[in-house]
Amino acid sequence: MNRLNFIHIMYFIGTAVALSFCALVPCIAQEAASTLSGVVLDIEGKPIAGFTINLSPVFQMSKTDENGAFTFTDVPDGPVQIMIPPQFGKTEKPTLNLEPGHELVSIKIGGITLYQGRHPPFGGINFAVKPGSDLKNIEVTVRPRMRIRARVVFKDKKPLTNASIATVITGNGTWSNITTTDSEGYFVHYIDNNGDPADYTVSVKHKGLSAKPEQFALEAGGHHDDLVLTLDGVAPPATAPTQSKSSKASLPNLLRKLTGGSTPPDKPASTQTNRPALTTQEQRRGEVEQGQVKTRGTSTTTRTQQKRPPSEPNTWAVNPANGHAYKRIRCGNLKDAKNRAAAEGAYLVAINDEAEQKWLLGLFGNHLYWIGLSDAEKEGEWVWQNGEPLTYTNWGPTHSFPRSSLSPDQKDSAVMTFIDGQWHAVGPGDLLWRTTRYAILEKADVSNSSPAEQK
Question: CB within 8 A of 90, min separation 6: which ones?
Answer without folding.
Answer: none
